[in-house]
Write a structure and sequence with these properties.
The chain has 273 residues and is α+β, with helices and mostly antiparallel strands. It is 30% helix and 17% strand. 45% of the residues are buried. The protein binds zinc ion.
């Protein structure tokens, strides 16, 4: 497959249905696009070309800076995104604003970026008041660019919106929060408790077929990349119904998983209580 340049990529995005002026959450795999002239920065430029000056681009720039997982505290200006080259290129874009959150920061480009990322530290990572929730309220769509539902962070928001009874179950036993650390504006280390920590997303692809059947998930192709397009609000509504029928459907079946079995057990406790 020949390599793609910025204009070709922008044309592919438009053809797949991305519109000027819309708000878009993007989860991405650079590798899925084959060879791109200029790499991740070109993908970001093409996305911004299509979204235009009034649209918004949000990508995760997660660092998972819990004291038990991360040797370094979250530094909003310096900590690299751990979720892919395209997200890191958005973070480094001169117009991007990164939210201040030690585990689930995001980077946003667009005229309302400041309002979308505001106060993330005082919200839950992906719950009410988070940038993901705000994008949803604004009517955003989600593009899985060469990725699948197991990287769709908004499904964690769906868990919150569906009030699932396992949200308090954490990776650590015996506490309903995890401890994260970060550098504050003065460069000093601070610690904070993270409630509603997003669990495991390994099992999330189970939603793809039911969402397709409901017309909520549309398969699209961006160059060589099999991709998916969804509307946030329709996703939240569909997941509310699916999770009401089957509250454990987003939990994975891996025996070695450190959180899903505990969360599943907590659902059983609920039904026998
Ligand atoms: Zn799991």
């Amino acid at each position: 497959m020949a390599s793609m340049n910025r204009d070709q990529l922008a044309a592919e995005l438009s053809r797949a249905g991305i519109r000027s002026g819309e708000d878009l959450i993007v989860h991405s795999s650079l590798k899925s696009l084959g060879e791109v002239e200029g790499g991740a920065e070109t993908v970001v430029a093409a996305l911004l070309d299509v979204l235009g000056p009034t649209g918004h681009l949000l990508v995760p720039t997660f660092t998972y800076s819990l004291t038990m997982w991360s040797r370094e505290p979250f530094d909003r200006l310096a900590s690299k995104s751990r979720v892919g080259a395209i997200t890191e290129a958005v973070r480094l874009h001169p117009r991007a604003i990164r939210s201040f959150h030690p585990t689930h920061s995001v980077a946003v480009i667009g005229p309302d970026a400041e309002a979308i990322v505001r106060n993330h530290l005082h919200a839950t990572p992906i719950g009410e008041g988070s940038p993901f929730a705000r994008m949803c309220e604004r009517g955003a769509r989600i593009l899985m660019l060469g990725t699948y539902q197991d990287t769709n962070s908004t499904l964690h928001y769906c868990e919150v919106a569906a009030h699932l009874p396992y949200l308090h179950v954490t990776f650590s036993d015996g506490q309903d929060f995890e401890v994260a650390w970060f550098l504050n504006e003065l460069g000093q280390i601070e610690y904070t408790q993270i409630f509603e920590i997003p669990g495991c997303s390994r099992g999330f692809r189970v939603v793809e077929q039911p969402l397709r059947q409901r017309g909520v998930l549309r398969d699209v192709r961006i160059g060589p990349a099999s991709s998916q397009l969804l509307e946030c609000k329709a996703l939240v509504e569909a997941m509310r119904e699916l999770l009401a029928e089957q509250p454990g459907m987003l939990l994975c079946d891996t025996d070695s998983c450190v959180i899903c079995p505990k969360r599943r057990a907590s659902l059983k406790d609920q039904t026998t209580a």
